[in-house]
Amino acid sequence: MEGTVNILGVPFSKLTLDETTQQLARHIQKEQPHLYHLITANPEITITHQTDTALQTIVREADLITPDGIGIVIASKRKGQPISERVTGYDLLLRLLEQGNALGWSFFFLGTDEETNRKAVEAINRRYPNVKIAGRHNGFFNSEEEAGILENIQHTKPDILIIAMGAPYSDKWIYKHKQELNQVKVVFGVGGSLDVIAGKVNPTPRVWKTLNLEWLHRLLTVPVVKGQKSRWRRQSALPKFVYRAIIKG
Description:
Rossmann fold; hexosyltransferase activity; two-stranded antiparallel ribbon; globular; WecB/TagA/CpsF family glycosyltransferase; single chain; glycosyltransferase; six-stranded parallel beta sheet; 16% strand; alpha/beta
């Protein structure tokens, strides 16, 4: 894939946050764009990709994969094909909300628990009053409710569909329902971004970001959600990534 660097089989985009936002904006402004599936991948997802054949197919067919982690940036430099900066789901969401506020884009928010989803959308309404909320729904639903959600998305035709159901589940859900999501212009997963916007989780302080220690801040401060792996268990993928992508190269 042109303009990418291959790290452990994942073709990461070398676009900056600004360039990524501009590329998505151009796609949204097209008269009849196809569904654009963007994946924000961190070292944990990159390691999962090694043995998850379903995720391998999803990655191969994605339109763009951004580097959501300092480890990806370091590995790219180790390969001599440097990525200039991380492009996280949270930062990209905020940029698109700013752009959407100026251009009147519509968003649909799917995921997290009901209270957090509602509070996040209320906060977005206050901060970005010109953004159109096509719809919202929490991430806990049965098959019957899922059919209604998909029908609602088809009916409202949002410019951007935001999924907050955890990785890689969000991207697997997107891939499974690509046919039903054909009225959407851009879709991507944002991890716990709605939790931050809703005020459920404090944003990472600037000093932690400057030191590229956002992952450690989340590890120490974000509560474990019932039914999900603990962050300590999930971060066990980091040593594997460091060895395979950075030390071994």
